[in-house]
Amino acid sequence: MLVGSAFVLRMVADMERSELIATLRAIECVHAVAPLDATDTAARLRARLTEARAHEPDEECSVSLGDPLLHRLFVALCGRYGLQAFRRERQRRSSVSVLAPKSFCQQVLWPEYSALARELERYLASETDRVIREAIDPAWPGGNGEPTPPERT
Length: 153
Prior knowledge:
This protein has helices at about 1-30, 40-55, 70-80, 100-135, and strands spanning about 60-65, 85, 95-100. It is mainly alpha-helical. It has one domain (about 10-130).
């Protein structure tokens, strides 16, 4: 019986993962101003970057991302569009910079990253709650995990 329920839970997790991937792809389509069935939205966004570079110079756009997973997301997104993310010597590990036109950073890169990060955080929080319920406390209500003080009698 446990094997059967574990199989069902894995199927549900896989479905949610595929829904997350579809949502992340849809977010990219929105920022690429492409139809949802577009095959290469990254190419459209790289073309927008090239166009922006034709009208304005690259500037150093720096952000501070405390969460290592969201830091990885930002670096991956930069790489997807051919941008090299970097950190200057003696900068904090949470800092990441990229050379790109300011308009591209403000109108494409940061808004897309923010939308992707929200979805990824939502998914990770949901998965964390599921694991806690399955492995630690079946009565776990989920949420932010803030402890509540006991009632005084």
